C-alpha cells in the first residue's frame, strides 16, 4: 500500500510552501481555516520516538518556524498543532491558525463537518507567497 503523505509533495506541487532539511510544508487544499498547513517528514516515520534526538530537535524547529510564519501572516488568536497519524500513519502536523470568528471556535477543527473551501490557483499562490515571505524565502527558493 502506498502512503498518501509520501506522495503528496510530488502530486500537489501547486500547494508547496517550503522544503526543509527534515520536512515538507504544504498549504492544505481545504482552506476553510485560512492558513491551514501540513508539515510532514520527508522520511516515512510514524512516531517521534523513532527519531534520533538530533532529527527530532530539527523537526521541532521546522514546526516552530512554520508556525511562527503562519502567525505572522494570519495573526491568529491561537495556533493549533495536531499530530495524530491514526488515518495516515506518516508523521505529519496540521498547523491551523485559529480565529475567534471561525465557525468552530474554540472547538477542534474536526468537531463537526464543514464544506470544503477550495481557492483559485491565484489565491493559493498568493497565500503561499505570503507564508514564504514570512519564512524569509523568495518565490522559487528552497530552504
UniProtKB/TrEMBL annotation:
Organism domain of life: Bacteria
Residues covered by the HIT domain: 3-105
Organism phylogeny: Bacteria, Pseudomonadati, Thermodesulfobacteriota, Desulfuromonadia, Desulfuromonadales
Name of this protein: HIT family hydrolase
Protein's organism: Syntrophotalea acetylenica (Pelobacter acetylenicus)
Record-level GO BP terms: nucleotide metabolic process
Single GO molecular function: hydrolase activity
PROSITE patterns on file: HIT_2 (PS51084)
Motif Histidine triad motif in this chain: 90-94
Keyword list, A-Z: Hydrolase
SUPFAM superfamilies the record matches: HIT-like
Amino acid at each position: 500500500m502506498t502512503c498518501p503523505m509520501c506522495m503528496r509533495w510530488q502530486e500537489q506541487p501547486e500547494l508547496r510552501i517550503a522544503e526543509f532539511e527534515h520536512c515538507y510544508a504544504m498549504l492544505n487544499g481545504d482552506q476553510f481555516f485560512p492558513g491551514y498547513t501540513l508539515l510532514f517528514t520527508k522520511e516515512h516515520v510514524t512516531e517521534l520516538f523513532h527519531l534520533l534526538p538530533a532529527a527530532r530537535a530539527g523537526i521541532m524547529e521546522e514546526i516552530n518556524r512554520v508556525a511562527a510564519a503562519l502567525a505572522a501572516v494570519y495573526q491568529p488568536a491561537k495556533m493549533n498543532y495536531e499530530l495524530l497519524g491514526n488515518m495516515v500513519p506518516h508523521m505529519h502536523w496540521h498547523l491551523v491558525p485559529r480565529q475567534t470568528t471561525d465557525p468552530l471556535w474554540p472547538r477542534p477543527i474536526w468537531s463537526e463537518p464543514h464544506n470544503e473551501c477550495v481557492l483559485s490557483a491565484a489565491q493559493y499562490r498568493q497565500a503561499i507567497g505570503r507564508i514564504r515571505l514570512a519564512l524569509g524565502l523568495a518565490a522559487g527558493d528552497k530552504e
